[in-house]
Amino acid sequence: MGNDVKFFQGFWRHGDQVCGCFSKIGFGQVKRLVSTTACIFFFFLLLTAALVPWIHLPIKQGNLFPQMIFSSRSSIKKHHSRTEYPLNCSDSGLQQKCPNNYPLVFKPNKLSTETCLDYFRWIHHDLQTWKNSGITKDMIERGKSSAELRLVIVKGELYMEKSGHPFQTRDLFTIWGILQLLRFYPGKLPDLDLLFYTGDSTKIKKKDYQGPNARSPPPLFHYCGEEKALDIVFPDWTFWGWAEVSIMPWEQMLSAIKNGSKRTKWEDRVPNAYWKGNPNVSKQRKDLLKCNLSDKYDWNTHLYIQNWAKANEEGFKHSKLEDQCTHRYKIYVEGATWSVSEKYILACDSMTLMIKPRYYDFFSRNLVPMQHYWPIRSTSKCKDLKFAVEWGNNHIDKAQAIGKAGSKLIEEFLTMRNIYDYMFHLLNEYAKLLKFKPTIPLKAKRVCSKTIACSREGLWKEYMEQSMVKSPSDKLPCALPPPYEPQALQAFLNKKEKTIRQVEAWQAEYWNIGRN
Ligand SMILES: *[C@@H]1O[C@H](CO)[C@@H](O)[C@H](O)[C@H]1NC(C)=O
Ligand SMILES: *[C@@H]1O[C@H](CO)[C@@H](O)[C@H](O)[C@H]1NC(C)=O
Ligand SMILES: *[C@@H]1O[C@H](CO)[C@@H](O)[C@H](O)[C@H]1NC(C)=O
Ligand SMILES: *[C@@H]1O[C@H](CO)[C@@H](O)[C@H](O)[C@H]1NC(C)=O
User: Fold this and answer.
1) Ligand 4 in reach of 364 Cβ (< 6 A)
2) CB-based pocket (< 6 A), ligand 1
3) 43 Cα–ligand 2 center, Å
4) Whose CA is nearest to atom 11 of ligand 2?
5) Does residue 401 lie in a domain region?
6) What is the tens place of the pLDDT at every residue in 137-189?
7) How many CA atoms lie within 13 A of 348 on its CB side?
8) Atom of ligand 4 nearest to the CA of 19
9) What separation, in Å, do the N-terminal and C-terminal C-alpha atoms of the chain show?
10) Is the separation of the CB atoms in 203 and 229 below 8 Å?
11) pTM of this prediction?
12) pLDDT tens readout for residues 460-515
């Protein structure tokens, strides 16, 4: 962690703008149950691997879901397990050289495919802008000034060109994630050329590309989007870890939060709404702090400031996400834009009180009010929070059910397999729109897991080792469902809106009666 001082200087420098993305933090453990499940799962995997003969069919781009004939269990091979390719930094002199022992083609063991979850449908919507025009080299050139990374995949290998100063190591962990995707589905990613922005604010505003003489907007990959922007949403870096603030890769982090969540039964949790985060990054957050308990009024909240510099000095002992499942209600409030804290908050089994977000990430558009969270207006935070907590304490079963459903959704949506499948389909659909043949840019350099991870130290390296894909997937990616039908989408949005109006009506009723 020799780089901490530097990172935290970075934090301060960018503090107002960027680190607000994150709001709550905590840490955890919970692996016993998970590892038991994993063991059983793995056992089945081995069993299947032993029974089903491998079919050596390299799958090429454009031939995603080929018709294949299932062979019967005629040739039973025993003890057939997958070879693992862990990070090997032993020949440190050759750190910059990418090893060539990893499989180049994808040989899935299971050839059946399931349809991807519904939230994958947004992939089509996010690429809609370029559906007719396609994506030209000129668009990429014009988008460069908004991007920090240009990533090119040619023949299954990744090349990158960096410009600007990405915050902390967001860029590294994002590249790491894409490298792991290439290891998960070797040889299956098409050639492509894309631009990525790792900051908080959306970059490609719709209003800049309207009117009769408007040019077509450049495609830009980013972690979040909003109604007014065209940024293409992609999973954020924290799925592979946020080393600067000691947040483990998502799989480990989720397992820790689930463990922490088991420590306090729902009924025994503090019957208040909890939030801990850095308020400095947004007006919404500063505003939220006004709802804290004071000698004048009790809004049923417990709000705390997360000072990351101080937390770092203390070794993050008091900022662990897995120790923050102590309240029945947890507040989600956006930072500078979207906040990566959303998934950690939803994972606690507590009912999430969500202050109306303006931004979305790749999965959050499928969250449903009163099913996965309780909606809070940003214009009436304190009153809405107080009512939500009172309601929950008077309808314990319902509040608990909303909390559980939110956590279940996060667990189902955000398995690493789903994350990789989402990335795969997004990149695959994007590549179909390219009007040119991607080539390696002059200044780009080849990157692979070894060149990225072997020169790192401390948590940075640890998280990369933990989140590394050690062998190719044993099955095909899920099958991408078509876009939402416009009517179905409208009905979904209307239903959401109607539910929110219903809650607002209850709120109004509560406060009117309260006053009289
Ligand atoms: C889960 O929580 C228990 C009880 O707090 C703890 O003893 C155990 O180490 C945790 N497991 C993991 C994997 O973090
Ligand atoms: C790591 O790489 C070195 C050099 O290529 C090789 O000799 C060694 O066997 C490898 N170690 C493992 C554990 O694969
Ligand atoms: C909110 O109130 C609690 C209890 O009085 C206090 O411990 C905490 O520091 C307060 N938070 C802020 C942000 O002032
Ligand atoms: C927020 O900003 C104030 C004033 O600039 C500063 O004193 C405080 O330490 C900052 N808090 C955090 C958590 O960054």
Assistant:
1) no
2) 29-32, 256, 259, 263
3) 28
4) 88
5) yes
6) 999 999 999 999 999 999 999 999 999 889 999 999 999 999 999 999 999 99
7) 34
8) 14
9) 58
10) yes
11) 0.84
12) 999 999 999 999 999 999 999 999 999 999 999 999 999 999 999 999 999 987 55
